[in-house]
Write a structure and sequence with these properties.
The complex is a heterodimer. Chain A is mainly beta. Chain A contains no helices and eleven strands. In chain A, strands 2, 4, 5, 6, 9, 10 and 11 form a seven-stranded mixed β-sheet that branches. A four-stranded antiparallel β-sheet of chain A has the order 1-3-8-7, with no helix packed on it. Classes of the chains: A mainly beta, B mainly beta.
């Protein structure tokens, strides 16, 4: 069974540019989560989808971040415009039910 | 609000030494606790979890953790570490809604051969 995959693995962009991160959950997992780890800090929850619906986006830092999950399969997280403080590792996770979450390898975002 | 504290940021051990990583949490609801591990260059993976029942939980690769409710702790232990245990370890608590994991800051373990 394929695990959670994320693309790209690394992204380096200039401040003010736009970046879109993609997450493909494990097939059949209705629940999809985004987390972020800023350098030297804890991994923090961003939001949770059940199928295509946002269930909880309490962790989204501001309106420069937009997450979508059209069709209830893969998800994208867009940062527009990117700021220096957005640098970090963005993790995606999925689960079948509410319980154990399976994590992807993360996307390392560097904003210069 | 829930929070998780991991006391040790960096731990260096020699092979065969015993390991105990501290984790304390703050949460008012039903507690579901996890330890995740991230080996170098790999993704986060679950070591073990506690939902209910026996407070001594056994996980993969010889790890175990003990939930002590009175101390709000969920420390991770392994009697004899190996070089391959070099990794970063994360303690986490899940909220009542069952969707949000709150992580501690992580502990980087280096095991010297």
């Amino acid at each position: 069974e394929a695990g959670v995959t994320q693309f790209p693995s690394h992204s380096v962009i200039e401040k003010g540019q736009t970046v879109t991160l993609r997450c493909d959950p494990i097939s059949g997992h209705d629940n999809l989560y985004w987390y972020r780890r800023v350098m030297g800090k804890e991994i923090k929850f961003l939001l949770h989808f059940v199928k295509e619906s946002k269930q909880d986006e309490s962790g989204m830092p501001n309106n420069r971040f937009l997450a979508e999950r059209t069709g209830g399969t893969y998800s994208t997280l867009k940062v527009q415009p990117a700021e220096l403080e957005d640098s970090g590792v963005y993790f995606c996770a999925s689960s079948q039910a509410r319980g154990e979450q399976f994590f992807g390898p993360g996307t390392r975002l560097t904003v210069l | 609000a829930q929070s998780v504290s991991q006391h040790n940021h960096h731990v260096i051990l020699s092979e065969a030494a015993s390991l105990e990583l501290g984790c304390n949490y703050s949460y008012g609801g039903t507690v579901n606790l996890f330890w995740y591990v991230q080996y170098p260059g790999q993704h986060l993976q679950l070591l073990l979890k506690y939902f209910s029942g026996d407070p001594l939980v056994k996980g993969i690769k010889g790890f175990e953790a003990e939930f002590i409710k009175s101390k709000f702790s969920f420390n991770l232990r392994k009697p004899s570490v190996q070089w391959s245990d070099t990794a970063e370890y994360f303690c986490a608590v899940m909220n009542n809604a069952g969707n949000m994991l709150t992580f501690g800051g992580g502990t980087r373990l280096m095991v010297k051969p």
